[in-house]
């Protein structure tokens, strides 16, 4: 069973599954960090806000924000998640 889980996770990382499978804890121990693997690179997104009526959650790239603060230049990646799927 463990092998099948590893294969599933590997295939998700390789082909970029649109279903959110990994939400991790922030430093305040709240489930607000979304981990997305893109081309073998981990990108973490921080929860900005959520709409209870529609079930949509909005995230922004945590490293992009830090980079923009330091360099005063660059773009910030945003994600929208609806019912567990990246939109």
From TrEMBL:
What is the protein name stated in its UniProt record?
A: FLYWCH-type domain-containing protein
Q: Where is the RYYR-CCHC domain?
A: 22-87
Q: Per the UniProt entry, what species is this protein from, by scientific name?
A: Parascaris univalens
